[in-house]
Amino acid sequence: MKKKLNEMSLGESGIVCQVTGEGKVRRRLFDMGLTPGANVFLRKAAPLGDPIEITVRNYELTLRKTEAELVIVNIKEDK
Questions:
Q1: In this predicted model, what pLDDT tens digit does every residue of 12-38 receive, in sequence order?
Q2: pTM of the entire structure?
Q3: CA-CA distances (angstroms) from residue 50 to 33, 55, 62, 67, 76?
């Protein structure tokens, strides 16, 4: 199932499949390690949901909602 990064629930993990947006914002997300194929895990969210903290490439990264909604993630289904 595909979701935007900002729509993930706490404790959910997935794999980045697409980074939308353009220009400097997209380049910045790539530079922070959010590239297609990267594993992400939603660790924390502020009370109002902005910002969120994820684990990507073995480090913690904090993103604003506006940045997180540009990243499409394929959610791992636990069965």
A1: 999 999 999 899 999 999 999 999 999
A2: 0.87
A3: 20, 16, 9, 10, 23
pLDDT in tens, 36-52: 999 999 999 998 888 99
CA 71 to the chain's CA centroid: 6
Compute the chain's Rg from CA coordinates: 11
> Residue 6, exposed/middle/buried by CB under 10 A (0-12, 13-18, 19+)?
buried
Residue where the block lists tokens 């909602």: 65
DSSP letter string, 59-79: EEEEE-HHHHTTEEEEEPPP-
Residue in the structure block whose two tokens are 């594993």: 39
Distance of CA 79 to the CA centre of its chain: 22
**Degrees, nearest 5: CA angle 7-20-14:** 45
